[in-house]
Amino acid sequence: MIVRSIVLENVVKRYPGFELNVSRLELVKGLNLIIGPNGSGKSTLLKLIAGFIKPDRGTIRIVTSEGDIFTRQAHEFISYVAEDVSFPNMKVHEILSAFAMDEENLKDIIELLELKDFLNKKYLELSAGYRKRIQIAIALLKEAQILLLDEPFSNLDIVMIPPLRDIIKKLSMNRLIIITSHIDLG
After folding, report:
1. Secondary structure of the chain: what % helix, strand, coil (to 5)?
2. How far from 115 is each of 6, 31, 53, 64, 145, CA to CA, in Å?
3. The pTM is what?
């Protein structure tokens, strides 16, 4: 089954003092960038798409080569990287090995994200930028057709942003990728 797009129709999610309201949005295979200020609902939108939270109204469906499915049934297709995740007391190699589907892919991702020197360090000992790299590595290890990246460039060293942006662009050739950001990444 091949994912073609994600369609949101009449989606509403309410919180005290905030309402996300999407009349219609279609996100297609390739790279989709959602830019907005902090507090504008970008993370909420990704959580809705991932099926972590349920809309108060409306539908979210994934259009595939074999028909439509609803996001709450699509966990095998989706990999979600939240803005902050924690793995207390785990070393980097333990985390990555737990998510790796094949050893060769694991080696490639470790090299790609320059993690080799950090494999024996505990996750919580790493800088925020390196923790972000681990989170992105986990998403890449799943090899999902839909990759949801919530503020993937926040807390990264400035020198890591261009290569990571290039990696994401390359991955978007055969995946549907959604990136949220409060800055334009050009």
Report:
1. 35, 30, 35
2. 32, 25, 32, 34, 24
3. 0.84
